[in-house]
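Methods — Computational structure assignment.
A single polypeptide chain was analysed. Its primary sequence is given first, followed by the predicted tertiary structure written as structure tokens.
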Amino acid sequence: MSHHHSHSHTHHSSNNQNVLLLTFCLIFGFMLIEFIGGLWTNSLALLSDAGHMLSDAAALGLSYIAIKVAKRESTNKKTFGFKRFEILAAAINGVTLIVIAILIMIESVKRFISPPEVASLGMLTIATIGFLVNIVAAVILMKGDKDENLNVKSAFLHVIGDLLGSVGAIIAGLLIYFFGWGIADPIASLIVAILIINSGYRVTKEAFHVLMEGAPDGIQIEQIKASIKTLNKVDDVHDIHLWTITSGFPAFSCHIVLNDDGHHDTVLKETKELLSHQFGINHSTIQVEGRSSGCPNLEDVCN
């Protein structure tokens, strides 16, 4: 039985931390301005965007804390350390987005029935500033590891949702200012809510997949099995498990059956190299068995 622990997961984590902290300060600061502006102009589009920005700020703060917590060393009780905390944070972010979107939808329906007066010029000004703030925030987050790290990705999706919210508020402000279409305000907020729900669903689904020990995207178990079986002296591969500890940290375990003249250490080394080079898996636990001696498991739990 062999264990190999990869220390490569710390790549980009400090950069991700800095990116998240900077974006948090930017988003939180403007959220306060947008909330006051929404109350002042009586615009639901602005208030819904401010509500989304509040969830963004919370999400970014949570993501920042998660990456700090994930750096803590493993203990006897938590042998993988606190890396999974990042996924829990991403799941909370996703659910928060969905809840906020539902609340915005409810308020939008109320405003369809009786559209209130909206101070369109003030709404336009604040929405335009919000648009620019969100562009800056998105650019900052793109410097992080948004394609690999689910936490940074969820934060990026929050900001993109905000960016679209600002666009909606700008369009609504223009329609109210030039044509007096008060109904444009709840329509804009409803569109934003649909976009927010979509982002929230995607993040929640990905986080749930990781929490359910799902196999990482882009790595096929059948491909791994076929590749290991091509190694010299390997007869069979069984009891295969492939899962994700946290973003960018896949883990793998299996039993390998050797020909009776196969050498344990040689095959083990070749398998480790194959997993690392072909599939990017650097954390694996492999049980090597001789064909004649069979699987030493006391209970029939192999799959």
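Note: The radius of gyration is 25 Å.
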